[in-house]
Design goal:
Keywords: Signal. The chain is of the alpha+beta class. It has one domain. The protein has one helix and four strands, in the order αββββ. The longest helix is centred in the N-terminal third of the chain and has 22 residues.
Amino acid sequence: MRRTRLPRLVARAVAGLTLGFLAGCDLGVEDLPIGDTPPVLSDQVCYDDSDCVANACCGEGTAITHRDVGPSCAGVRCDGSCPPNSVDCGRCIPTCRNARCAAACQ
């Protein structure tokens, strides 16, 4: 009885691992059409996603830059507006990819 269950168990494990790996794949910035991602203004090296920001506060920026050259948003009150072609309302977030700031967009 145990020998007949083993091949099924192995097949299910392989199928589960395959589906798990496929579900973990994301659409990277490199895979998006060029016109769909905001431009990057900085060529500084980033180490973490927190090193990268939009070039304006409240998600209203139109490009991605390194936080060292980005705006200081301390004390800025956001009104919740969503200008067209902005980073946030374009459904993008600043991210660090390949040691450079980039935009990850949906």
